[in-house]
Automatic annotation (TrEMBL):
Antioxidant protein with alkyl hydroperoxidase activity. Required for the reduction of the AhpC active site cysteine residues and for the regeneration of the AhpC enzyme activity. It holds the Pfam family CMD. This is Alkyl hydroperoxide reductase AhpD. Its EC number is 1.11.1.28. Gene3D superfamilies: AhpD-like.
Amino acid sequence: MSLDSLKSAIPDFAKDLKLNLGSVIGNQDTLSQQQLWGTVLSCAIASRSPRVLRELEPEAKAALSPEAYTAAKSAAAIMAMNNVFYRTRHLLSDPEYGTLRAGLRMNVIGNPGVEKIDFELWSLAVSAVNGCGQCLDSHEQVLRKAGVDRETVQEAFKIASVIQAVAVTLDAEAALAAE
């Protein structure tokens, strides 16, 4: 199970995904190793693809400290909740929902166990996978205020986009093969 076996599973019609996967993960020089593999792991979880998660998790676990591994999983978990909640509040036509207290526990955001910037980057990437504009804006603003450049922010959502596309493609191929 590895990045290479995941790349080899991508069908020829999606060759661009194979090349992009190798590029955003294998030829990375913008993100630190922790930022890279935390982004990969949190997005693999957010993709909801057992195959993608199975293939990428061992390399992520090997590259991350136990604290960073847990924090990346925590980012995927908390953003799974927040992305639904805040996206729904944003999409409802009644703006009064935005004035109500959320009433949801989000303690891990305040104390993620890793550098705040890394956790914010992972939260942004998961929000990209889950399509929550309000969360994307919020995490991007925190990152930019902390001095993170746009290229680094974009690298996180590039990884999110490629992992999500690989997940969709491989899961579709598996479903078609099962027919």
